[in-house]
Amino acid sequence: MKNTISTALKAGIAAVALAAASGCVSQKQVDEISAKADKAIQDAAAAKAAADSAASQASQAGSSAQAARSAADSAQNTANQALQAAQAAQAAADATNEKIERAFKKSVSK
Questions:
Q1: Averaged over 42-64, what is the pLDDT?
Q2: What domain count does the chain have?
Q3: Under a CB-based contact definition with an 8 Å cutoff, are residues 1 and 45 in contact?
Q4: How far apart are CA 66 and CA 78, in angstroms?
Q5: Which among 53, 29, 39, 46 has a CA at the least distance from the CA of 9?
Q6: In angstroms, how far is the first alpha carbon of the chain from the final one?
Q7: Terminus of the chain with fewer CB atoms < 10 Å: N or C?
Q8: Chain-centre distance for alpha carbon 33
Q9: Which residues, other chains included, contact 16 with Cβ-Cβ below 8 Å and sequence gap of 6+?
Q10: What three-state secondary structure class fits 110?
Q11: What confidence tier does 17 reach under pLDDT thresholds 50, 70, 90?
Q12: Between residues 53 and 4, which one has the greater pLDDT?
């Protein structure tokens, strides 16, 4: 895009210079056109800087999102391990309760 603008501006300046050489354009008009061309170049540079900044921020946001995804995956793995440990503990408690119940029934039946 910058190349297109630059090429168009060069062509415009060349046309103005040619017209000035043939006497159709005053120096004031050439200066005005040159100032407009310079302004257009500055505007294009500012637009490019803004686009580069936006691209950088988008990249940083993508990196942050990836880090958040990684943290969420890690938290899910930890939660799954905790669930497995809780289920194992519950199974052990159930087995212990069954043993106590059998021992109680055995002592009562005597």
A1: 96
A2: 1
A3: no
A4: 18
A5: 39
A6: 97
A7: C
A8: 40
A9: 25, 29, 30, 33, 34
A10: coil
A11: low
A12: 53
**37: CB partners within 8 A, 6+ apart:** 9, 12, 13
What length does the chain have?
A: 110
Distance in angstroms (rounded) separating the CA atoms of residues 49 and 29: 30
Token duo for residue 28: 């004031």
Using CA atoms, how far apart are residues 75 and 73, in angstroms rounded to an integer? 5
Contacts 24+ apart (CB under 8 A), 4-7: 5/40, 5/41, 5/44, 6/41
Q: Percent of the chain scored above 90 by pLDDT? A: 64
Average pLDDT over residues 34-63: 95
Residue type, 91: A
Residue 20 pLDDT exceeds 90:
no
Residues 6+ apart with CB under 8 A from 9: 37, 40, 41
Q: Where are the alpha helices (DSSP H) in the chain?
A: 2-21, 27-109
Q: Does 13 have pLDDT greater than 90?
A: no
